[in-house]
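To: structure subgroup
Subject: Chain for Friday's discussion

All,

I'm putting the inputs and outputs inline so they're searchable in the archive.
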Amino acid sequence: MLIYPVILDPAEEGGFVVTFPDVPEAITQGDNKKDALMMAQDALVTMFDAYMQDRQTIPEASPVYGQTCVSFPVILAGKIALYNAMLAVGMNTDDPKSGS
């Protein structure tokens, strides 16, 4: 399973602002903790897509030591690992059969 720690800060207007130690560009919010965590998943997926569009490595998740976190299915972890490996060797991520 792919698990990213999140930081939930109370928002002045109510609810929570969500940030991510490993993906600082992703910021979202929710009306309550449950809503904030659902929005957190969407924010990370959006940022992962932006990283891919820009041909940037997707940051690995740091260890979760009792922190609040969001998780994704194992299949997404595999896709991200493959994408990052393809970038690392200079393979074109748009066409896995291509060498550049």
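Points worth raising on Friday:
The chain has one domain: 2-71.
Residues 33-53 form the longest helix (21 residues).

D.
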